[in-house]
TrEMBL record:
The keyword Oxidoreductase does not apply. Zn(2+) 1 binds at residues 385, 389, 413. InterPro entries: Peptidase_M2 (IPR001548). Zn(2+) 2 binds at residues 385, 389, 413. The lineage of its organism: Bacteria, Pseudomonadati, Pseudomonadota, Alphaproteobacteria, Caulobacterales. This is Peptidyl-dipeptidase A.
Length: 619
């Protein structure tokens, strides 16, 4: 499988064990292709022995696959692709076989730990292959091809060749709509050849999911949250409806600023925002166009981008700084091997997967990150994000293999983001000598606006990617409708439109890493909500009394201890137990992100007075 994200290894944190925890009740009657049990009902001791053996076998295959994946992700070529496909297929076959066998013990009265392991075995895969010869190899080949097409994607404009880094940098900096459109259309064009393969991937993994007793691959993905799959979909709707009005306010304000800058012919006053004007290829983070939306008359005295350059930070110094935040909370320093084996910058001489990821290669102490770090505020934040994965992995290293994962996949994504919230506060930047003077309250709105361009702008994107994939997997949309439906969803959730009519062969969802690499995306939506819950709880624990956005937990050992108590649980318990251990709450709750941004939301409502906000189909 492609990149750092193979089936057993979830997401961009290559966590060792299968994905998130599961409902106590199987999602759908899971009796399908399970061979009949030879003797009478198996005993609890046999069930336990099976789970333990399965665990040992998977841990071994997983470690092997991780080494192969690492080689592939840091050196894409014919041979590493071959090896990845081979290792991936072997792992997939073993997982499918063990998942089918695990179902034999459904009715056996086993202890709670074994019960959870059996359930995890059954919902562990992102892309299961059908249980027949050649199916896993076919799926792995398609998947590797999709990942490589993405990671080696390039296009030519005005005689210059662009890869994703270069196109992204140009798009972020340019205020010429012809240039932003060229970057955007150029990058989207790399995905057109993926469409057929994507349809094949959906068909192959659906066959596997059905064999395991799930309606389709999407239902399998939704079953990892300690609740029924349909209840989970409803839960994400609930969270989205809590935050959608705030997003709409930010959209309204930003659209007006873009209209003022570019005029009606480029950005009309009403309707969707043109997707290439927001400074990011997928318009999932608008912070690069802060200068366009900056409030008039309220100054912002520093830019983290500039401070990092002025103070001569390089990628290693950024990572060392990130590490020292975690050690200030009481976590042990990263091992020497982390520094020896990680990839911190894009190598000049070979193709690599540049999309940032964190790894736990031996499921014990061989943790690494893989980034193509640029010295800027965005990557400073990403460093903290990736290290969050690594510190989580180390915290649960003493759990049995099947529990070596986050409470649910949103937790894995949320930890580093939560720490990142402190790491970009002026309070902290001042403490570590990056910023000479902490700005006064008059800069709170500019600060919150910058954060919202990153965090609030992300929310609809975080939800829509998997809304689209769920429809692909369920068969609601066919290959011919892939792109049109993508834009319907982008229009509905983000309120954006393409700069021009899309070509008939376009496959724009494939121009997003997580689609090409089959990394489930709802995790990031959950993380966007959870990280603020963690922040609110942590700042309460630290006795913080000021505005939540100014709170830094740097050096707060007691917070670190409590955080560790949650992290070291891994996925041994349903996620509400883990959430409760750190925050005292058992539900995901968007009131924390709303609390954090409350002063900005009030300010936006003021700015938007008299404006017609929203767009067709918006909430
Ligand atoms: O993929 C990532 C991380 C690696 S897990 C860099 N993120 C999502 C994305 O880039 O789309 C972090 C934010 C959302
Ligand atoms: Zn991540």
């Amino acid at each position: 499988m492609s990149a750092a994200c193979l089936a057993l290894l979830t997401g961009c944190a290559t966590t060792s064990a299968p994905t998130a925890p599961v409902a106590e009740a199987p999602p759908v009657a899971p009796e399908p292709a399970v061979p009949p049990v030879a003797s009478a009902k198996p005993t609890p001791a046999e069930a336990k022995a099976f789970a333990d053996e399965a665990e040992t076998k998977l841990a071994d295959l997983n470690e092997y696959a991780q080494h192969v994946q690492w080689m592939g992700a840091t050196f894409i070529n014919y041979d590493t692709e071959w090896l990845q496909t081979r290792a991936d297929a072997a792992l997939n076959e073993a997982q499918v076989s063990l998942a089918l066998q695990a179902a034999k013990y459904n009715d056996v009265d086993v202890d709670a730990v074994t019960r959870r392991k059996l359930l995890l075995l059954r919902v562990s895969q992102v892309l299961p292959a059908a249980d027949k010869p050649g199916a896993a190899a076919d799926l792995a080949a398609v998947n590797t091809r999709l990942g490589s097409t993405y990671s080696t994607g390039k296009f030519t404009w005005n005689g210059k060749v662009y890869n994703l880094d270069e196109a992204s940098r140009t798009m972020a900096a340019s205020r010429d709509p012809k240039v932003t459109r060229a970057m955007w259309e150029g990058w989207m064009s790399i995905a057109a050849p993926m469409k057929g393969d994507y349809a094949k991937l959906a068909q192959l993994s659906n066959a596997g999911a059905e064999g395991l007793g799930f309606k389709d691959t999407g239902a399998l993905w939704r079953s990892g949250y300690d609740m029924a799959p349909d209840a989970f979909a409803t839960e994400t709707d609930r969270l989205w409806s809590q935050v959608a009005p705030f997003y709409k306010n930010l959209h309204c304000y930003t659209r007006r600023k873009l209209n003022e800058k570019y005029g009606d012919s480029v950005q009309p006053k009403f309707g969707p925002i043109r997707a290439d004007l927001l400074g990011n290829m997928w318009a999932q983070d608008w912070s690069n166009i802060y200068d366009v939306v900056a409030p008039k008359g309220i100054k912002s005295s520093y830019s983290l981008d500039k401070l990092l350059v002025q103070k001569k930070y390089d990628p290693i110094k950024m990572v060392k700084t990130g590490e020292s935040f975690y050690t200030s909370l009481g976590f042990a320093a990263l091992p020497q091997t982390f520094w020896e084996r990680s990839q911190f910058t894009r190598p000049k001489d070979r193709e690599v997967v540049c999309h940032a990821s964190a790894w736990d290669v031996d499921n014990l102490s061989d943790v690494r990150i893989k980034m193509c770090t640029n010295v800027n505020g965005e990557d400073f934040y990403t460093v903290h994000h990736e290290l969050g994965h690594n510190f989580y992995q180390r915290a649960y290293k003493d759990q049995p293999f099947l529990f070596k994962n986050s409470a649910n996949d949103g937790f894995h994504e949320a930890i580093g983001d939560f720490v990142g919230l402190s790491s970009v506060t002026p309070t902290y930047l001042n403490q570590i000598g990056l910023l000479d003077k902490v700005p006064d309250e008059s800069e709170d709105i500019p600060y919150l606006l910058k954060m919202a361009l990153q965090k609030v702008a992300f929310l609809p994107f975080g939800i829509e990617v998997d809304r689209w994939r769920w429809e692909v997997f369920s068969g609601k949309i066919t290959e011919a409708q892939y792109n049109q439906r993508w834009w319907e969803l982008v229009g509905k959730y983000q309120g954006l439109s393409a700069p021009a009519v899309r070509p008939s062969n376009a496959f724009d969802p494939g121009a997003k890493y997580h689609v090409a690499a089959s990394v489930p995306y709802t995790r990031y939506f959950l993380a966007a909500i959870l990280q603020f819950q963690f922040q609110r709880a942590a700042c309460d624990q630290a006795g913080w009394k000021g505005p939540l956005a100014r709170c830094s937990i740097y050096g707060e050992r007691a917070v670190g201890e409590k955080l560790n108590a949650m992290l070291e649980m891994g996925q041994s318990k349903p996620w509400p137990d883990a959430l409760e251990a750190f925050t005292g709450q058992r539900d995901m709750d968007a009131t924390a992100i709303l609390d954090y941004f409350a002063p900005l939301n009030a300010w936006l409502e003021e700015q938007n007075k008299g404006q017609t906000c929203g767009w067709e189909g918006s909430i």
